[in-house]
Amino acid sequence: MVLADLGTRLRDALSSVESGSDQEIQSMIKDIVTALLESDVNIKLVARLRDNIKNQIKDSDDKNPSHIRKRLQKIVFDELCELVDSHQEPPQPKKLKNIKQKGPAKLNSSGKKITPKSNSYVIMFVGLQGAGKTTSCTKLANYYKKRGFTVGLVCADTFRAGAYDQLKQNAIKAQIPFYGSYSEQDPVWIAREGVERFKKEQFDIIIVDTSGRHKQEQSLFDEMVQISEAVTPLQTIMVMDGSIGQAAESQALAFKEASNFGSIILTKMDGHARGGGAISAVAATKTPIIFIGTGEHIGDFEVFKPASFILKLLGIGDIQGLMDHVRGLNLQNDESHKKSIENFKEGKFTLRDFQTQMNNFLKMGPLTNIASMIPGMSNFLNQVGEEETSSKIKNMIYIMDSMTGKELDSDGTIFIKEPLRIVRVARGAGCSSVEVEMVLQQQRMMSSMASNAKLMQNNPMVNSPQM
Ligand code: GDP
Questions:
Q1: Residue 310: what pLDDT?
Q2: Ligand 1 centre and the CA of 275: distance in Å?
Q3: What is the pLDDT of residues 361-413, one digit of tens each?
Q4: CA 183 to chain CA mean position, Å
Q5: What is the phi/psi pair of residue 240, to 5°?
C-alpha cells in the first residue's frame, strides 16, 4: 500500500471510533494492523504495536467516549512514532553547529593572513547504484546552503558513466561549487584531492559522492573503506531506495558492517511509494533516518523526525515541520516572519501569522508537500492535485488580504463576536462566507497546534536536533 493510502486508512480507523465500545476498539485495532501489514511493515513490529495498544487501552476505567477517542489517538500516535523511531541521534551534531563560530581572520607578524586549521565538516555518501546518492548529495548541499553554510560537492563516482556530469549539472543549477574529473579513474585520488581543495578554501561542509554498484559486492565495500580512510568523514550517510520495503533492513545491516555509516537518507518516498516498510525496517537497525527524498527535484527533501512524519501521515498537520521548512527560506531579515516566529514560540498563531506563512509557502513549492503539513488540508489533498492545492492556498491568501489590520492581528475570535465581518471579507475576496469560515477554522487549528507545540517544547521526540 502506498504511503498516502496508509495515512487515509489509519485516519479512517481512528475516526471510526464513536461510542468507544470494546467492539469498535477491536475493529479499529484490526484495521490499523491490516493497513500496516499491507504497507509492508514487519509482522513482528505490527504484533508488538497491536499488543501495546490493547494493553494501554484496557488499563483505564474511564468510559467517556470522547476521552476514549482522545486516549486512543494518543496511544496510536505514540505507538506509530515508536515504530519509525531508531532512538538514535545522528553523529556529531554539535560539530556542525560550531562551524558557524568563526572569528575574524588572524594575521601573522608580517601582516599575512594565517590559514587556520580546517574546520570543514566532511560528509561521505554511500549506497547502491540507482539509490539516489547523486541526487541526494545535491539536495543536502542545497539544504545547508539555504541555511547559510558554504558547501562544496566532490564527485568520486568513477564507476557510473555520467555520474560526474549529473552532479555537475545539478550543482550548477543550485549554484554549488563542485569538484570532479573526466580523466582521472581513481576515486580515492579524486575524493582526497577534492576534499583538500575545499578544505583549503575553508568550506563549512564538504559532501563526497562515491560510486555505487548494482548489488552489494566486495569491490564496492573495499572502495568505500579506502575513500573513507582518505577523507576521514565526520559523518557517513547511507542512501537507500525507500521503495524496497522490508528488504531495507538487511541492506542497511550489510552496509553498516562495511562502512559503519551513522545515518540514512531514504529516497523515493513520494506519495506513491510503499514507504512504511522501509522506514520501520531501517528504524529497527537502530540507525537514524535523517532525511527523506520525496521527488526528483532539489527541493523534494524533508528532514525526518518520527513525530512530524506520523502527524503528517495521520493528517493532523505538522506545525514544527512547517516552521523547519520556512526556516530554509533565509527569511532572517523579514520582519513579519520574525514576528510570526516569536508568536509561535509563545504558543500563539494569529491570522497575520497564517497569512505570512502562506505567502512563504508559495515561494517554496511543491505545494502538495507543504500543504500536507497544514492541519485539515491532507484530506482535501488526497482528492485534488498540485494545481488545485496551489489555487486553494492562493484563495486563502486573497481572503486574508481582504481582512483589516485589526482582524489579522487577532486570534480570530473577533469574527465569532462580529459575524458580519465574515460577510464583508467574503465580498472583498470574491468568495463565499463558507470559504472565509474555513480559513478561520484552519487558523484556529494552527493556533491550537502552536499552543500544543509550546507545551511539547521539552519533548525530545519533537525537537530532536538534526546534524
Ligand atoms: P545514484 O546512482 O545512487 O547516484 O542515483 P541517482 O541520484 O542517479 O538517482 C537514480 C534515479 O532516482 C534518478 O532518476 C533520480 O532522479 C531518481 N531519484 C532520486 N531520488 C529520488 C526521490 O526521492 N524520488 C524520486 N521519485 N526519484 C528519485
A1: 83
A2: 15
A3: 666 655 556 666 665 565 555 555 566 777 788 888 899 999 999 999 998 99
A4: 37
A5: -135, 140
Q: Write the DSSP symbol of residue 21.
A: -
Ligand 1 within 6 A of CB of 145: no
Contact status, residue 83 vs residue 49, Cβ threshold 8 Å = yes
Site of grid cell 527523506: 292
Supply the pTM of this predicted model: 0.70
Q: Is the CB of 317 under 6 A from ligand 1?
A: no
Which DSSP category does 113 fall into? B
Q: Characterise 123 by phi-psi region: left (phi > 0), alpha (psi -120 to 50), beta (else).
A: beta
In short, whether 133's Cβ falls inside 6 Å of ligand 1 is: yes
Q: Give the SS3 label for residue 120.
A: coil
Q: How far is the CA of 162 from the centre of ligand 1 (A)?
A: 14
All domains in the chain, ordered by first residue: 3-84 (1.20.120.140), 93-97+116-313 (3.40.50.300), 319-463 (1.10.260.30)
Whether the CB-CB separation of 379 and 371 falls below 8 Å is answered with no
pLDDT at residue number 464: 35
pLDDT in tens, 114-166: 555 567 899 999 988 889 999 999 999 998 888 788 999 999 988 877 888 99
R_g (Cα) of the chain, nearest Å? 24
Grid coordinates standing for 295? 521527488
Q: How far apart are CA 227 and CA 158, in angstroms?
A: 12
Helix pair 275-284, 65-84: axis angle to 10 deg: 70
DSSP characters over 231-297? H--SEEEEEEEGGGGGGHHHHHHHHHHHH---EEEEE--STTS-HHHHHHHHHHTT--EEEEE-SSS
DSSP secondary structure, 359-390, as one string? HHHHHH--HHHHHTTSTTHHHHHHHS-HHHHH
Q: Which residues of the chain have pLDDT under 70?
A: 1-2, 90-118, 213-216, 271-274, 315-333, 361-387, 452-467
Q: Which atom of ligand 1 is nearest to the CA of 293?
A: 23
Does the model's ipTM exceed the 0.95 cut? yes
User: Which residues are registered as beta bridge partners of 41?
Assistant: none
